[in-house]
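User: Hi! I'm working on a homework problem where we have to compare a predicted structure to a textbook description. Could you give me the structure for the chain below?
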Amino acid sequence: MARILYIQTSGTDTPERLYAPFVLATTARSMDMDADIYFMIKGVTVVKKGAAEEIKVGNFPKLSEIMHQAIASGAKIYICEQSTQLLGMARGDFIAEGQVVGALTLNDLAVDADAVITF
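Assistant: Happy to help. Predicted structure tokens:
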């Protein structure tokens, strides 16, 4: 099975950049592909509890709806531990579906992926 890794470095301060990885991951899952989304740097702010509920751009639904569709489809959510430390965020600040992981995980995901796309 093909695997795509989406890396989200943009945060809640650039809401128009946040929808793409979730939409693409949902689409990849519908194509029977594995889809992983790795949040790092300011991207970790997107998966903070309640943050996606506050974001709505244009005619799109709230980001939380798109995020939950991706998760329900089977997309995996990874949160960079070093980025959380950089921004002073605690492990318990994030959505339950996200797994806080280290840099080794990102390297493993990238090496195993057939494609890597960054936002």
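For your comparison, note the following. The CA atoms of residues 7 and 118 lie 5 Å apart. The two ends are 23 Å apart (CA to CA). Good luck with the assignment!
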